[in-house]
Amino acid sequence: MGATTNRPALTGEYDVVVVGAGAAGMYMLHRLRGIGLRTIVFEAADGVGGTWYWNRYPGARCDVTSVEYSFSFSKELEQEWNWSELMASQPEIEAYMNYVADKFDLRRDIVLSTRVTSAAWDESSDTWRVETDQGDSISARFCVMATGCLSVPLRPDYPGIDDFKGVSVQTSLWPKEGVDLNGKRVAVIGTGSSAIQAIPEIAKVASQLIVFQRTPAYTWPAQNRPITPEEMAEIKAHYDELRERQRNSPLGIVGRFGGALLEPPTQNILDLTEEERLAALEEYGFGVTRIFADVPTNMEANEIARKLYGMHLRKIVKDPRKAEALTPTDYPLGCKRPVIDSGYFETFNLPHVDIVNLRKEPIVAITERGIRTSEKEYEFDVIVYATGFDAMTGALLNINPRGRRGRTLQQKWANGPRNYLGLMTVGFPNMFTITGPGSPSVLSNMLVSIEQHVDWITDCLAYMTSKGLATIEPTQEAEDAWVEEVNNVAQGTMYVAPSCNSWYLGVNVPGKVRQFMPYIGGLDRYRQRCDEVAANGYEGFELRGSPVPA
Ligand code: FAD
Ligand code: NAP
Question: What is the mean pLDDT of residues 5-18?
């Protein structure tokens, strides 16, 4: 959706360049202004909001309660904004992001419709030179990559993909003007979070909907509903307490989630008799998979919970063929990101909705008329690709920053991302990443993680400015130790089970190295660590006052 700007190219010098104007880039700009740093933000889209600008597909919404998935830095903002639902929809969150941009007068320093194409460290001047697809070439002492973890859409490379004569659309590039799905024959490829939100909505208007599924998902009911004005008033009265609890929680979330309590469970499913397990299933439904302590760590327990999950699914989906196709069988619960849905399985009881199991009937090609599998050709008016993202590293590696001695990030991360605290990587001084690999990031409520990172970076830059320091860069020792810690804490969890394939591991992208990218130790523990590092004079970082000799 980025357009040609027809504006004069920018050539100035700045203190900080921020790439991306999603929640992270916007809040970063606000804080940097607050400490008097001259900042410019480049954003590829023609509007702000990042994820909530791009993902306009039907049914797109937050899966964390919106009062928790919102900024905490302004009490005024908290009091002014009303959320209409527990989990707000994309238009409401996009409106919120725009409200924030206006309220804090952010737009004057955000350059829209402009994609950063390169960033190179100049060792002689200790600055980053940043270039864009609009001809801009600016320099800045610091570069903050607020480029997003889920901002590079992936599309399969099926033979004939461009031959389709109908409408092809990606959930993450959904056009602003919408797509007419009324009475149309629609295909959805993929069954991750995006597809699972879109499918029930598309089914409401399409004449036929066929879902092409490679891996069945574990999904839990959202239990979304409107928030009453009385509830909103109550929330506003207690925001301080809520925020404090969020910041000190491992996920940045304190509320109920998918029907199960977030307090860590203590009982083991392996200690229960078969009757007790069935009684728990009766009581909790799909939530039964979230209430036992051993399910996330013990494969035998996990298997039992998975079977209970399948039993509940078969109660909902009436057609045994569809139910079988939809039941996850070959990977553990807790491997992929939990999916939250509104009536997903129920949708498959509609006569005009069907599922194709790509494990049995793979797609061979996209044709002029639709999709050809190993069995037959299906005809469609619209094909929806809900096929995910090159997550966590994709946007950074697309820019491919060039650090000290001309070494690129693609070269440095050829065997997977390496950095210190998920914030900085050796060889790339003064370049920060927000919610990058190696931080809790996508394993947490992202707005809480974003605020934590932005606040830490702001404090760091204020410290450097006050001491007259020119550069900051992690030590090799600190980076190596952190990479080891990130790997170690993930061991023994279902996230890295041999049968697990997820975008957390990068395996959804052909050729990407299999490495668990986020830090699973918890946002509370991570925050404490970052605070200690800062309190100890930025332990593990090297700070210098003048240019480093080449
Ligand atoms: P983004 O919002 O992704 O913004 C990054 C911006 O950088 C984008 O606008 C992009 O255009 C821009 N950019 C990237 N590269 C360049 C470049 N080279 N030049 C210029 N601009 C560039 N998280 C949760 O915690 N809870 C949720 O419920 C939740 N729901 C989600 C739903 C969807 C559909 C998706 C895709 C993600 C969801 N997430 C959720 C994760 C979500 O990405 C984060 O919560 C958050 O919005 C990330 O903000 P950000 O600013 O870091 O990145
Ligand atoms: P995703 O979880 O990666 O799902 C992509 C889907 O497409 C998977 O089912 C995948 O199958 C399938 N797929 C990919 N390539 C395929 C191919 N070549 N042929 C057939 N199928 C293919 O992507 P997503 O649904 O966009 O979600 C990504 C993340 O964004 C989520 O995990 C979440 O963090 C965030 N998100 C959140 C929400 C929310 O509820 N708030 C909504 C949307 C997105 P395999 O599993 O076999 O790879």
Answer: 94
The answer to whether the CB of 189 is under 6 A from ligand 2 is yes
Distance between CA atoms of residues 420 and 475, nearest Å: 8
Residue of the CA atom closest to atom 33 of ligand 2: 193
For residues 544 and 183, give the distance between their C-alpha atoms in angstroms, rounded to a whole number.
64
Residue 255 is predicted with a pLDDT of 78
Which of 67, 91, 82, 77 lies closest to 30, judged by CA? 77
Cβ-based burial of 336 (10 A; exposed 0-12, middle 13-18, buried ≥19): buried
Residue 548 pLDDT greater than 70, yes or no: no
Ligand 1 center to 1 CA (angstroms)? 15
Beta bridge partners of 383: 168, 187
Tell me the two tokens of residue 516.
Answer: 């668990």
Q: How many helices (H) and strands (E) does the chain have?
A: 16, 19
Q: How many CA atoms lie within 13 A of 252 on its CB side?
A: 27
Going from the Cα of 388 to the center of ligand 2, the distance in angstroms, rounded, reads 4
pLDDT tens-digit readout, 295-336: 999 999 999 999 999 999 999 999 999 999 999 999 999 999
pLDDT score at 546: 67
User: Residue 95 above 80 pLDDT?
Assistant: yes
Pocket of ligand 2 contains residue 386 by CB under 6 Å: yes
Q: Answer yes or no: is the C-beta of 170 below 6 A from any ligand 2 atom.
A: no
**3 state SS of 40:** strand
Q: Is the CB of 458 under 6 A from ligand 1?
A: no
What is the rounded distance in angstroms from the CA atom of residue 18 to the CA atom of residue 146? 6
Helix, strand, or coil (residue 13): strand
Q: How far apart are CA 218 and CA 213, in angstroms?
A: 13
The reported pLDDT for the residue numbered 256 is: 53
Dig out the tokens for 396 from the structure: 């950074």
Question: 364 alpha carbon to ligand 2 midpoint, in Å?
Answer: 20
Asked if 17 and 43 touch (Cβ cutoff 8 Å), the reply is no
**458-466 contacts, C-beta under 8 A, 24 or more apart:** 458/28, 458/31, 458/32, 458/34, 458/35, 459/534, 460/534, 460/538, 461/16, 461/32, 461/35, 461/37, 461/142, 462/35, 463/534, 463/538, 464/543, 465/35, 465/36, 465/37
CA–CA distances in Å: residue 433 to residues 25, 229, 480, 541 = 11, 38, 17, 15
The pTM of this model reads 0.96
